Amino acid sequence: MSDQFSIAGRTFRSRLMIGTGKYRSFQEMVRCHEASGAEVVTVAVRRVNLTDKSKESMLDYIDRSKYFILPNTAACYTVDDAVRTARLGREVGLSNWVKLEVIGDEKTLYPDVFGLVEATRILAKEGFVVLPYTNDDLITARRLIDAGAAAVMPLAAPIGSGLGIQNHAALRILREQITEVPLIVDAGVGTASDACVALEMGFDGILMNTAVAAAQDAEKMALAMNRGVEAGRLAFLAGRMERKLYASASSPLTGVIR
Fold this sequence. Notes:
The protein has helices spanning 26-36, 79-91, 113-125, 138-147, 168-177, 192-200, 210-213, 218-238, and strands at residues 5-7, 10-12, 16-18, 40-44, 68-72, 97-100, 129-134, 153-154, 184-186, 205-208. The protein is of the alpha/beta class. The strands form 3 sheets. The chain has a 5-stranded parallel sheet. The chain has a 3-stranded parallel sheet with strand order 6-7-8. A two-stranded antiparallel ribbon has the order 1-2. The longest helix has 21 residues, at 218-238. It is globular.
């Protein structure tokens, strides 16, 4: 497909973004990235070796001529931690882009939306391209855009749960009401049909990690996600048929021999 989308002026061909955590090996991670067709790979700044060049790092396995690295602030529970982590990622040369996470609850990993808006405002003023992970609330999304977010990344379900989209109505409202920045579904995907549904709903992209890394055959799941995203996008562009309560013959009745 030649269908492309842009975030902050940067154009991407693939609407699938993929993570780097939980793989059984770096070699498996590389194979999954390749099978996924993704162009954007997200890296948790606080969970990667950035300074000791004598030790192996996942960054050694990411071909930066093929993949755009999106640092994230995973495991940050305060505004100060998130901002500091984003700055670190930029200082060590990863990117001035950031998938911003400010976690508010340890068990659910739901975002602290008040802290998230504040951190977005701070980082956007410092020249970061901020992609905040947030809940599926329209008002929060608007606040994040007002604070300078370049895209909004609402969750489908709790991080790593694999439950798939749990609140279709909220996501539909977001898609209808938010048009000024891209919307990327983030967290909770379990299988390829979840990704397909998200793209069928008109979301600009989807980010996942555990759904691929924790699959019994991660490489096959990465390929399935690739095709699920493509199928969902094609279905959205095609426009589904009208839903009807009663049957409608698939063959016309005119000209039928009686």
